[in-house]
């Protein structure tokens, strides 16, 4: 069943009335909350049941999750629209120094030419149900915090496995909605054969690069097309040349007329994590301890990895996805730090809690139940701050280096596989092992030992200033006055001797037990064996911390609800959400007004011929030819490129379709404005703006630059 038919029928039968003006509203609404919204009053011109209908088909059935991003089905042959940066690794993996698809773009002439995107998966939300009482039934009142965490995790796994048993071929996961309080079981269709179909060159897909990232005005063609495949029987299957395109239940109609200022828009997607209901102590810990440390380490990696590969295109390609991920987080955190300071958000949160304390003090019953909540959170984050230097260093030592990350996975797997399925850590459950192994193999295929040696060497140097790190077995003899020379010798010998980062080796060692791994005498496995006890201790400590935090945070939610006299939307957690707003600009500073749409003219104005503002010559020729077809906006005098809108988004909304009042895809979300990097902690209509690529630019580039007419015909777009 195709949703475009439902939409068209509804519009034919409807008489469109003027709707009251409505601005964007804070809220990434779970599907369970949509019935509480009056979307038609906000500007929606559809029956809300065509947006989401738990008992039938609706627009939401055309939304999917691609890796850590969102995508949408735009044809009945499994064609998906998502961001260029979401498909970045697939484009990189298909590239070589000779066939550099990142540089030149990629366009499959036929379905047979579409390239496997190894490691990518697609999830489509089928159903959900609240399982809070079932999960919390595993908790006993006198449990220790760490046992509470383990009991909840085990129950979540049991519920997921039980659901998968009665629904063969489906994927089930329990997600925590409010920390320590509410849990929802989601059932997904899970597709494992994903292929790259079309991607513009980096000079279009990431025009402006890091200089423009998180900024407005923007002129990025951040889009790509991918396709989902299934087995000949129509069921999810691993890659095979015999597989056929997936037939989605619902196809979203592409609205090639685009948008205009003040248009109502809404977004479905899988936003990552927000922290709007956390305490002032959390915000202080994050802004003064955690994020500055991350910014420092990520900045060092970016500078040194880029410099080490400069001029060597093969190495630049190998490191491209790694560096891009670091850059995105680095600039995002800098924006958040500035936003917290600019808005004086910590003081605001502290003032809110002062009022909460007065509210508690005025009621004996509240005093009895809630007087220890805020002091408890203060104490919790104070404890976290005391050990953050070592905690982050150990995590970086075992994760920033791809070799050490692989060694940790292999070592931990040898231990976890001896446990029952529900007692294992998530990555080592039988249902997840293929994906865990795939991620190792993908990293091995683009492994750069020079980059890894650089990172490990720096971390060993930094260990000198962290007493707990400097005292670790396996590390202590590589720090101090002669430590750097010993570290250099160790790294030189280790990278020459180890064969861990090879496909065939990884496949073999994932089958080994701990003793067999020891017998290999691999220097990285040996180092992980030394670091695993403190790592395990830290992991168990984190479980204890989570057990403490969940109870405190659940009490804080209850207290806020009593104080405000209303429910509020749970923080984003990677599950399907809706947000809505309007196409509108904003004023970030005095006398500066940001208009909400940019055009091709702005690309030529920015063009310098030098990265990241280097427009391909052929692109410029096409612009000068002036054949824009139906994608020209007569009002604007050009093809719209990017747009601003007042929806509530965060990471994970990358690739989310921007839908108009009639449910057509009119854009593709890919970023937020600089001031809106603070969205994870606070949202405000005056500065919270998301950024998307206008569908007219997507279609024009695909048609004219990519010469992929077949895709426009497949989407039933006239041109």
Describe this structure in words.
Strand 8 and strand 9 (182-191) form a beta hairpin. The chain has three domains: 3-121 and 192-272 and 572-669 and 683-714, Thrombin, subunit H, CATH 2.40.10; 124-190; 280-559, no CATH class. The two termini are 25 Å apart. The protein is α+β, with helices and mostly antiparallel strands and 719 residues long. The strands form two sheets. Strands 2, 3, 4, 5, 6, 7, 8, 9, 10, 11 and 12 form an eleven-stranded antiparallel sheet that branches. The protein has an eight-stranded antiparallel sheet with strand order 1-14-13-17-18-19-16-15. Helix 3 (88-94) runs antiparallel to helix 10 (313-342), helix 6 crosses helix 21 (523-564) and helix 9 packs antiparallel against helix 10. Helix content is 45%, strand content 14%.
Please render the helix and strand layout as text.
Blueprint: H1 3-13, E1 29-30, H2 39-42, E2 63-66, E3 69-73, E4 79-82, H3 88-94, H4 101-104, E5 106-107, E6 115-116, E7 122-130, H5 132-136, H6 145-166, E8 170-178, E9 182-191, E10 193-199, H7 202-205, H8 209-212, E11 224-230, E12 244-245, E13 264-269, H9 280-309, H10 313-342, H11 345-361, H12 364-370, H13 373-399, H14 402-416, H15 430-445, H16 449-462, H17 467-470, H18 483-497, H19 503-509, H20 514-519, H21 523-564, E14 577-582, E15 597-599, H22 600-606, H23 617-625, E16 640-645, E17 657-660, E18 665-672, E19 690-694, H24 695-705, H25 709-714
Antiparallel strand pairs: 1-14, 2-3, 2-7, 3-4, 4-11, 5-10, 6-10, 7-9, 8-9, 10-11, 11-12, 13-14, 13-17, 15-16, 16-19, 17-18, 18-19
Helix pairs in contact: 3-10, 6-21, 9-10, 9-11, 9-13, 9-16, 13-21, 14-21, 16-18
């Amino acid at each position: 069943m195709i949703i475009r038919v439902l939409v068209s029928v509804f519009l034919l039968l409807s008489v469109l009335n003027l709707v009251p003006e409505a601005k964007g509203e804070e809220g990434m609404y779970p599907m369970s909350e949509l019935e509480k919204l009056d979307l038609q009053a906000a500007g929606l011109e559809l029956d809300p049941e065509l947006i989401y209908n738990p008992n039938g088909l609706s627009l939401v059935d055309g939304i999917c999750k691609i890796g850590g991003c969102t995508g949408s089905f735009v044809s009945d042959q499994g064609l998906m629209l998502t961001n260029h940066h979401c498909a970045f690794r697939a484009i990189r993996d298909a590239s070589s120094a000779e066939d550099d698809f990142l540089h030149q773009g990629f366009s499959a002439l036929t379905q047979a030419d579409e390239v496997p995107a190894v490691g990518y998966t697609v999830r489509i939300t089928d159903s959900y149900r609240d399982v809070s009482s079932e999960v919390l039934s595993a908790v006993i009142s006198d449990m220790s915090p760490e046992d509470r965490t383990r009991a909840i995790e085990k129950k979540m796994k049991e519920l997921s496995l039980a659901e998968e048993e009665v629904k063969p071929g489906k994927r089930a996961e329990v997600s925590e909605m409010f920390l320590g309080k509410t849990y929802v079981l989601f059932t997904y269709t899970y597709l494992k054969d994903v292929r790259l179909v079309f991607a513009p060159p980096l000079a279009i897909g990431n025009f402006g690069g890091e200089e423009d990232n998180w900024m407005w005005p923007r002129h990025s063609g951040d889009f790509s097309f991918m396709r989902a495949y299934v087995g000949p029987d129509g069921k999810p299957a691993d890659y095979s040349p015999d597989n056929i395109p997936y037939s989605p239940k619902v196809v979203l109609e592409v609205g090639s007329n685009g948008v205009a200022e003040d248009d109502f828009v809404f977004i479905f997607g899988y936003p990552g994590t927000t922290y709007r209901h956390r305490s002032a102590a959390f915000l202080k810990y994050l802004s003064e301890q955690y994020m500055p440390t991350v910014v420092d380490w990520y900045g060092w990696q970016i500078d040194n990895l880029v410099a080490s590969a400069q001029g060597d295109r093969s190495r630049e390609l190998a490191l491209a996805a790694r560096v891009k991920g670091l850059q995105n987080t680095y600039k995002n955190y800098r924006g958040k730090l500035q936003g917290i300071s600019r808005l004086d958000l910590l003081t605001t949160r502290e003032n809110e809690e002062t009022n909460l304390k007065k509210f508690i003090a005025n009621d004996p019953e509240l005093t009895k139940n809630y007087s220890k909540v805020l002091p408890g959170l203060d104490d919790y984050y104070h404890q976290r701050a005391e050990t953050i230097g070592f905690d982050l260093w150990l995590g970086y030592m075992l994760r920033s280096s791809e070799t050490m990350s692989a060694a940790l996975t292999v070592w931990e797997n040898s231990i976890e596989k001896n446990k029952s399925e529900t007692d294992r850590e998530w990555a080592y459950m039988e249902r997840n092992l293929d994906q865990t192994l795939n991620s190792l193999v993908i990293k091995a295929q683009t492994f750069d030992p020079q980059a890894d040696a650089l990172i490990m060497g720096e971390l060993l140097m930094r260990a000198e200033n962290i007493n707990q790190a400097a005292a670790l077995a396996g590390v202590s003899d590589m720090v101090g006055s002669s430590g750097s020379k010993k570290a250099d010798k160790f790294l030189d010998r280790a990278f020459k001797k180890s064969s861990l980062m090879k496909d065939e080796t990884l496949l073999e060692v994932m089958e080994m037990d701990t003793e067999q791994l020891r017998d290999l005498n691999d220097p990285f496995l040996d180092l992980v064996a030394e670091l695993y006890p403190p790592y395990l201790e830290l992991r168990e400590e984190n479980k204890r911390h989570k057990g403490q935090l969940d109870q405190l945070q659940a009490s804080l939610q209850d207290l806020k609800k009593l104080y405000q006299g209303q429910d509020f939307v749970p923080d984003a957690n990677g599950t399907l959400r809706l947000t809505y707003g309007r196409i509108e600009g904003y004023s970030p500073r005095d006398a500066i007004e940001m208009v909400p749409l940019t055009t091709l003219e702005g690309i030529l104005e920015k063009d310098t011929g030098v990265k990241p503002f280097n427009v391909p010559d052929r692109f410029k020729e096409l612009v000068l030819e002036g054949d824009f077809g139906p994608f020209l906006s007569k009002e604007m005098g050009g093809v719209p490129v990017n747009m601003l809108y007042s929806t509530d988004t965060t990471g994970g909304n990358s690739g989310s379709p921007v839908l108009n009042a009639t449910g057509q895809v009119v854009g593709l979300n890919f970023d937020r404005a600089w001031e809106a990097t603070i969205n994870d902690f606070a949202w405000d209509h005056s500065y919270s703006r998301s950024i998307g690529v206008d569908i007219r630019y997507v279609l024009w580039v695909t048609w004219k630059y990519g010469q992929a007419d077949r895709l426009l015909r497949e989407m039933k777009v006239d041109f």
